[in-house]
Specification:
Number of strands: 8
Protein name: Crp/Fnr family transcriptional regulator
Shape: elongated
Strand content: 15-25%
Number of helices: 8
Strand order of the largest sheet: 1-8-3-6
Largest sheet: 4 strands, antiparallel
Structural class: alpha+beta
InterPro entries: cNMP-bd_dom (IPR000595), cNMP-bd_dom_sf (IPR018490), RmlC-like_jellyroll (IPR014710)
Helix content: 40-55%
Pfam families: cNMP_binding (PF00027)
């Protein structure tokens, strides 16, 4: 939502001004779970400062499949919108300041905004971008080696490599911490 907003445009500023009163600022320490896998999402978060990850439990192992930094809207959209159990856990990685809103508070505003083409297009853009990110990440497991996935991440999202602990990066690209260390060592030798 806000991540796709150009804060200098009149339409965008109107959008922010409309929604901002429904959000309250909250601070969370690192490693705070904001939504547990299997629970229903009743809140939506816009990251003002900090970092979050989305992960799921597979046979006792945490599998990270997305990271969110500043100016990102985060929730389990399906769970939030449909009132179904979340398929993942949402957790802060570092101390994080968010704007958060309760679904019951913003539901009428969300429904109203979807009737306005400008706001509806912002929502659609965010949902499609999130979908494209998931598809590209999934396809990378079929099309690329772990080393290629790591190098691609370094090229496309270097800020993640600098800010995210390496064990989360390893999980995200589908390898162990040891394998990631080998890949990094190999790259340093080149």
């Amino acid at each position: 939502m806000f991540e796709r907003v150009d804060k200098k445009s009149a339409v965008s500023q109107s959008f922010i001004d409309t929604y901002r009163p429904y959000f309250k600022e909250q601070s969370y320490p690192a490693k705070t779970v904001l939504l547990e896998e299997g629970k229903i999402a009743h809140k939506i978060f816009w990251i003002k400062k900090g970092c979050m990850r989305v992960w799921m439990n597979k046979d006792g192992q945490e599998i990270t499949f997305q990271f969110f930094l500043e100016n990102s809207l985060v929730s389990s959209i399906e769970s939030f919108w449909q009132g179904t159990a979340s398929k993942f856990t949402l957790e802060t990685i570092e101390p994080t300041i968010v704007w958060e809103a309760e679904k019951v508070a913003i539901q009428p505003l969300l429904e109203e905004s979807l009737t306005q083409p400008v706001y509806r297009d912002l929502f659609i853009d965010v949902l499609f971008q999130r979908t494209f990110d998931y598809v590209n990440h999934s396809l990378s497991f079929v099309q690329s080696t772990p080393e290629e996935r790591y190098l691609q991440l370094c090229q496309t999202r270097p800020e993640l490599i600098q800010r995210i602990p390496q064990h989360y990066i390893a999980s995200y690209i589908g390898i162990s911490k040891v394998h990631l260390s080998r890949i990094k060592s190999k790259q340093l030798k080149r």
